[in-house]
Amino acid sequence: MSGSTLGTLFTVTTFGESHGPAIGSVIDGCPPGMLLSEADIQPDLDRRKPGTSRHVTQRREEDKVEILSGVYEGKTTGTPIALLIRNEDQRSKDYAKIANSFRPGHADYTYLKKYGIRDPRGGGRSSARLTAPAVAAGAVAKKWLKEKYGVVVRGYLSQIGPNKIEFKNWEDVEAEGNPFFAPDLARVPELETYMDKLRKSGDSCGARINVVASGVPVGWGEPLYDRLDADIAKVMMGINAVKGVEIGAGFHSIEQMGTEHGDEMTPEGFLSNNAGGILGGISTGQDILVSIAIKPTSSIRLPRKTIDVEGNATTIETHGRHDPCVGIRATPIGEAFLSLVLMDHALRHRALTLAGATVR
Amino acid sequence: MSGSTLGTLFTVTTFGESHGPAIGSVIDGCPPGMLLSEADIQPDLDRRKPGTSRHVTQRREEDKVEILSGVYEGKTTGTPIALLIRNEDQRSKDYAKIANSFRPGHADYTYLKKYGIRDPRGGGRSSARLTAPAVAAGAVAKKWLKEKYGVVVRGYLSQIGPNKIEFKNWEDVEAEGNPFFAPDLARVPELETYMDKLRKSGDSCGARINVVASGVPVGWGEPLYDRLDADIAKVMMGINAVKGVEIGAGFHSIEQMGTEHGDEMTPEGFLSNNAGGILGGISTGQDILVSIAIKPTSSIRLPRKTIDVEGNATTIETHGRHDPCVGIRATPIGEAFLSLVLMDHALRHRALTLAGATVR
Amino acid sequence: MSGSTLGTLFTVTTFGESHGPAIGSVIDGCPPGMLLSEADIQPDLDRRKPGTSRHVTQRREEDKVEILSGVYEGKTTGTPIALLIRNEDQRSKDYAKIANSFRPGHADYTYLKKYGIRDPRGGGRSSARLTAPAVAAGAVAKKWLKEKYGVVVRGYLSQIGPNKIEFKNWEDVEAEGNPFFAPDLARVPELETYMDKLRKSGDSCGARINVVASGVPVGWGEPLYDRLDADIAKVMMGINAVKGVEIGAGFHSIEQMGTEHGDEMTPEGFLSNNAGGILGGISTGQDILVSIAIKPTSSIRLPRKTIDVEGNATTIETHGRHDPCVGIRATPIGEAFLSLVLMDHALRHRALTLAGATVR
Amino acid sequence: MSGSTLGTLFTVTTFGESHGPAIGSVIDGCPPGMLLSEADIQPDLDRRKPGTSRHVTQRREEDKVEILSGVYEGKTTGTPIALLIRNEDQRSKDYAKIANSFRPGHADYTYLKKYGIRDPRGGGRSSARLTAPAVAAGAVAKKWLKEKYGVVVRGYLSQIGPNKIEFKNWEDVEAEGNPFFAPDLARVPELETYMDKLRKSGDSCGARINVVASGVPVGWGEPLYDRLDADIAKVMMGINAVKGVEIGAGFHSIEQMGTEHGDEMTPEGFLSNNAGGILGGISTGQDILVSIAIKPTSSIRLPRKTIDVEGNATTIETHGRHDPCVGIRATPIGEAFLSLVLMDHALRHRALTLAGATVR
Questions:
Q1: Smallest CA–CA separation between C74 and chain D, in Å?
Q2: Which residues of D touch C222 (CB under 8 A)?
């Protein structure tokens, strides 16, 4: 238990359930003196929020964030920053039908078995809605990383179902009329057609998200175990529906030769980035490259074989409001978690270097 | 800094460098009353140790482990168990040549930049040799998991370079004359030919290791952030040379439909295991399926472009003794880290259930 | 930084400032299945809240707690329990006068020097008001300890200024017309006279609080460093204004002989309790006896020599609303922190024993 | 369980039992680049070691420390520093007589009840001998604090049994022919007479140790819970036999008025130090003043009432080799633990200030 806090020096503790009164997070360890207001946080929440297109859940949540503490006269004070988001559009009755059986591929089953009690409303604690407080906290980390180091953390959808999307440019990712964070605006119509067909079919599909952090200085990461890549893998695999994490060349490195994989160095810098910006668990100064696999949504309309809470065979069809592909909204989530890890490691590394500096 | 401890209730702290006086680990949190001696630990160290075939480094290390504490009259006492391994075969002079430049793909560069000082002998702290103390600690976790829960943790080499190896049976993995932990003895001659050619070429290759834990009860894992899959991803990505981690269907789940991926349930159990035994970050009771990608060794004989510590362009050829594929010895390492995570979560979950039990 | 979380398995993270929008806490690790509502928490908040008598600050705060998460259909779910208390009666202008100089004995100075920024309103984060969220969390721990183990945690005021108060009985402590948590109702009139005189004088005084936990089973505490007495000392010394902590005989043990101090044992139990219920950092099964010293309030009306933020000599008189003796409201605070430590150690110990049990 | 690690950024994990093969510690988080050798550590071990006078246990232990890792070419590398001390003079047979009953005031009872198994040889893990690895680690922290900040951590014996010793000067504390760390050499003959009489009587007595840290900058400590005073209280109460901890005026502050206790400030500095150098959990820049109460040794020759492991009434006399007053050797132990806390907080604070600095 007590697994709801992330980080060592920059810690984030989240709370809440999909259909409870509120969700939120407490950031402890944000350095003092940074200008901060709700306006710095709301944009990322808006990028993640439901109901923004026909391709995502139609649940209506404004996800308005309120800063409860840690800011005085517009600046962070170094004390805990509490962020509160009230839940608004709850249709708990939607879940009456499924409250007594388990959705294949969903945490319904494991939560009930683990805790002996379960909040079936929208998946309770296991809902992807709980990524919102992390996105809010991530926006604080993102701002600090940018202001202090010029680090920019960005992501995009690189594949949805069978559709691979080559990276074209960052502008397209955030462009009007691109509900997918796809890195090539020209591909959007085709993706919309695919998603419309999928939605009508009552099935769901998976996706791949790539997240890139530029400007990270060399030296972040605390081997042997709190390596930068290890902590990135932890938070990324911890995102709802994620089943795989790659850094740099990832699984492709299995078939590479050493002469191909090892990034050669010149006085002008590295000649490639198979390492994904991390060697020995420590940042190299190159872009940090992370890619994650997101499984298809488990809440689908098509009937599936399952059991009820008494263990009897039954079938289940999940109606109500669900994302046919949770990957569509996952880009800001991936950015947020990568930002949280980088901020924590920035502080950990600074403690070491500064401390070491004057002794040397 | 202080990133050399793993775990919450069952913690492992390792120390040492490749060419220092000794390496070792301190296990804190092992329950009392378990029979334990060096004989329980040495076999996994022997499976990992160098010099066991022509396909791995020829460094001669007996890797004899000594239990320094935590055991009285043959039983664990519940106090810290310190495990010591003396380094024996150190040829530090081998590193004189490369001490002033960086191996592409190696932690040489990042360690020097981070710490401002570096132990070039065999990679110092960043050496794969430092997996030995973790393997020793993992053997203790493995024994406890087996005795208390009947959990069995096993791994195998599923791919080396371009050669994919289908799983045939567990007997083959540990069979005489199988230096690769390959799950199909019939494939060994072909793999040996491949490795001999590779070694002579002076290049290196990558590999894929699969690790499976059978018998894990439903309920292990502490959402939201200390999820079982998240902690597995952290330790696996933290193993030297690992660039990717998958649970269950992993990256394959991107192209699966929800109707295909979600494991249907019947009174007799699940009908498939795309989840890899984990839903919502909590074990389902099915086998835990983990797969990792290992990059090709960075220390190779072929010349590579690089820079020296002053930043000048140069080339480097790494002679001395190195594994042409670190994946060959990675199977017991993957088993050890998975065992450490499972043991920690077993204890964390028991605290919760027991605690909750009588209140309910 | 990030020092606002207590505990290992039962963690409490608090947030807020004296005059911000709200204060609160997030409990992570509460076992599932316990009946819980605001009615279980409010009574301890009411015992601590200001304005309950003329002897404490006249600030009017209802301190109404709202449970935001972690409870479903009246029962804890095992997920984080967020507790919110809105601030109501803020007279920030009271602090304009003192915003630019430091109160002798107050955290004004150290907070500004540490963080480079300070919220002067009511002491900001350093205010004793921040004990309220801990008292709320402590009420949850208290309930669980009582229901599951029959552990009862109670405290009383044993000295205020020069007035020592012998323990008479627990009824008196909570009796009507006893604003001091004094363990002898007959002493109350004399204490009121003393406090009235003190208040009029514009000065302040110190106090001693004793806290007792009955029913704690033998075995709680995790040596060597997370000993039960060590963790109790940490949280108690961490309470605002506390300058000393004793367990059992405490400082009196300096002048005891071994033959006097060591509690002899018989088949019927211990013959004394100089140990205060803890030996070797582990509970003995006897009452846990804790005593703390509380310094006099630093915010007083009488003029004191000090410096302003520019470092110039000045004098300061603190008007506004303050407790002439913070010890008067400290009893429920001491109970809460002791309860938090006991609950965390209950869970930690259970993980060990259960885990060990079947191996032995 | 897993309570054998101290610290957040500068962590120390100890292992070993009084009569096992070896004891030791692993320091993780020591900054790189500091000159370090056994010669920096041995002196504090020698100050603590047994057999140095007739007033302490006659067990003969050289307590020679070996650095196993973390140092390369005489300098710390930033990687874990493992310190090993082999046990030499073990007379386990001395404990045969008492192996089946419990010493009043000793951890015998609680260890057996907690762990269900116990190492009776010299108290096993609960032995004061286990302070040696912490003293070794403390010497590393002490050196860094002195070199980097000019912080000096020193202690002395301020009372033994009924004999209070006024502080005269630091030279006397370390003077030849002063086996007590008494701060007034003139008092030593009287103390020796007292101790000789006590030893012959077969009884034991308590003591008080004062520890002072000079040169600590303003700003160390991480409120609300990882306050500097809170963490000091934790480690000090965690030292064997300690029953009370005071900071500054300590329990004396109960009877002080606010006008007396609050340390007035002038441009030249504070006019007094009742705070003991800590306000709001943060260092003020004044000396850190800590005082601890040490109970009388529980292992005494005089017969005491107790029970055996079956719970039957019996009496016990403890022969073998024991300190009649553990306080005599406690001064270097108190210094070590205070140094460990200060070092950890130095690093934590630097992470914050540096991080904040450029944002402000």
A1: 30
A2: 1-3
A254 secondary structure, DSSP code? G
Segment A92-121, tens digit of pLDDT: 666 667 778 999 999 999 999 999 988 888
pLDDT along chain C (360 residues), means of 10: 91 96 97 96 94 86 95 95 91 70 95 89 90 98 96 98 98 96 98 97 97 97 97 98 98 98 98 98 98 96 95 92 92 98 95 52
Least Cα distance to A275 among B317, B108, B200 occurs for B108
Distance (Å, rounded) from C-alpha D280 to C-alpha D134? 28
Q: Which of D9, D77, D80 comes nearest B119 by C-beta?
A: D77
CA distances to B352, C248, C261, D243 from C273, in Å: 32, 7, 9, 12
Smallest CA–CA distance from D15 into chain C, residue: C224
Instruction: Identify all chain D residues contacting A358, using CB atoms and an 8 Å cutoff.
Output: 148
CA distances to C156, C177, C263, C277, D298 from C274, in Å: 19, 33, 6, 8, 12
Q: Per the structure block, which two tokens stand in for D24?
A: 């030791």
* B148 lies within 8 A of chain C by CB: yes
Provide the domain count of chain A: 1
Cα separation of C117 and C112, whole Å?
5
Q: What are phi and psi of B275, to 5 degrees?
A: -70, -15
Percent of chain A residues topping a pLDDT of 90: 86
Say yes or no to pLDDT of B94 above 90: no
Q: Residues of A with CB below 8 A from B232's CB? A: 237
Residue-wise pLDDT tens digits, A328-341: 999 999 999 999 99
8 Å CB contact of B246 and A249: no
Residue A15: which domain range? 5-352
Cβ separation A79–C124 shorter than 8 A: yes
Mutate to test the interface with B, among D8, D10, D11, D13 (most CBs of B within 10 A): D13
DSSP secondary structure letters along C142-173? HHHHHHHH--EEEEEEEEETTEE-----HHHH
Q: Partners for C (CB, 8 Å, 3+ pairs)?
A: A, B, D
Please name the residue that has the structure tokens 């017991």.
B332
Residue A358 lies inside a defined structural domain of this protein: no
Q: Which residues of B touch C34 (CB under 8 A)?
A: 356, 359
CA distance A82 to chain C (A): 6
Judge: D20–B69 Cβ closer than 8 Å, yes or no.
Answer: yes
